């Protein structure tokens, strides 16, 4: 059964929020918002999302979606309280929801920019003369097909999560009064932790193989990595919390720190060798070499053109 406004507990709705906790929550919310902006700016300014792993974005978006709806359901009564409390009290009571809403929105925007600025030369199949002869290939590459599939999957997952959550809250009740709603919220929380715990592995592997920073933003990670450890500390000192509450965030912070150190190393290595941040020293998802054209080193931008990609591949085939 649904919880009506008349069943709300005024004492709970008007609970006193310690000023220090409110301040910390506001700082974390603004910190989340600001920390993602360098990543957005880097993709837009370079007009390329090359170097980002679509699987990293998949896991991150799924994790942030699940965590947002988890807290949205568990604290839905606080949203209902907004009808009987002041605007300031409502703002303070829903700061936790606001934080995760910001995280979800900012990470989902990275995925959107990734698709919009996906490198055109990586959308098509690699050129192999003994297969394509003198006609350039027109089919989509595996990486681009995977990215499209990931974008569709994330969209469907979001829509289904919204529908299920709204139906449970509207026709069943809150997590406190309707067990299926609580089970759904718990399932979202567990899924979020599982996705977050392995989120950075695809990106770490991708960056290691590329030997370059690509579209990753070092300033974003410089802000988020220390922030994750502060977040772990803030959870650990709260009464009633166990290591299971904060351990996944500790693992995530360590993995992001690993990625940060790797990116810093590749950044200075590229500067020392005269390469740009988009220099690629790997093979693509189709197993074809992506070594940049000789002009890449001279220009220092690290972007390899479609024609240079064909030239390098043909050269390797002829020498094989």
UniProtKB/TrEMBL annotation:
Keyword Transmembrane: yes
Compartments where located: Membrane
GO CC annotation: membrane
Protein keywords: Membrane, Transmembrane, Transmembrane helix
Keyword flag Metal-binding: no
SMART domains: CTNS (SM00679)
Membrane topology: Multi-pass membrane protein
Region (Disordered): 297-320
Full protein name: Pq loop repeat protein
Primary location recorded for the protein, binned into one broad class: membrane
Positions of transmembrane segments: 20-37, 57-77, 97-118, 148-171, 213-237, 243-268
């Amino acid at each position: 059964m649904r919880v009506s406004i008349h069943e709300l507990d005024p004492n709970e709705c008007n609970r006193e929020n310690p000023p220090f906790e409110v301040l910390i929550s506001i700082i974390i919310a603004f910190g989340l918002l600001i920390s993602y902006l360098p990543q957005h700016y880097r993709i837009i300014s370079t007009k390329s999302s090359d170097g980002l792993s679509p699987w990293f974005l998949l896991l991150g978006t799924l994790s942030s979606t699940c965590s947002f709806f988890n807290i949205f359901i568990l604290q839905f009564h606080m949203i209902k309280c907004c009808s009987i409390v002041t605007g300031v009290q409502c703002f303070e009571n829903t700061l936790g929801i606001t934080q995760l809403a910001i995280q979800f929105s900012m990470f989902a925007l990275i995925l959107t920019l990734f698709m919009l600025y996906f490198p055109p030369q990586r959308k098509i199949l690699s050129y192999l003369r003994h297969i394509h002869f003198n006609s350039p290939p027109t089919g989509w590459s595996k990486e681009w097909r995977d990215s499209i599939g990931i974008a569709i999957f994330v969209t469907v997952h979001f829509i289904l999560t919204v529908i299920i959550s709204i139906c449970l809250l509207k026709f069943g009740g809150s997590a406190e009064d309707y067990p299926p709603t609580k089970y759904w919220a718990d399932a979202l929380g567990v899924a979020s932790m599982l996705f977050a715990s392995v989120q950075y592995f695809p990106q770490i592997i991708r960056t290691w193989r590329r030997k370059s920073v690509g579209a990753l933003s070092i300033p974003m990670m410089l802000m988020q990595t220390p922030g994750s450890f502060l977040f772990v500390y803030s959870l650990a000192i709260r009464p009633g919390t166990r290591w299971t509450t904060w351990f996944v965030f500790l693992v995530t912070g360590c993995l992001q720190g690993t990625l940060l150190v790797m990116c810093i190393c590749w950044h200075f290595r590229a500067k020392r060798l005269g390469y740009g941040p988009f220099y690629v020293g790997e093979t693509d998802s189709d197993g074809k070499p992506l070594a940049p054209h000789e002009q890449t080193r001279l220009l220092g931008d690290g972007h390899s053109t479609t024609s240079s990609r064909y030239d390098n591949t043909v050269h390797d085939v002829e020498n094989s």
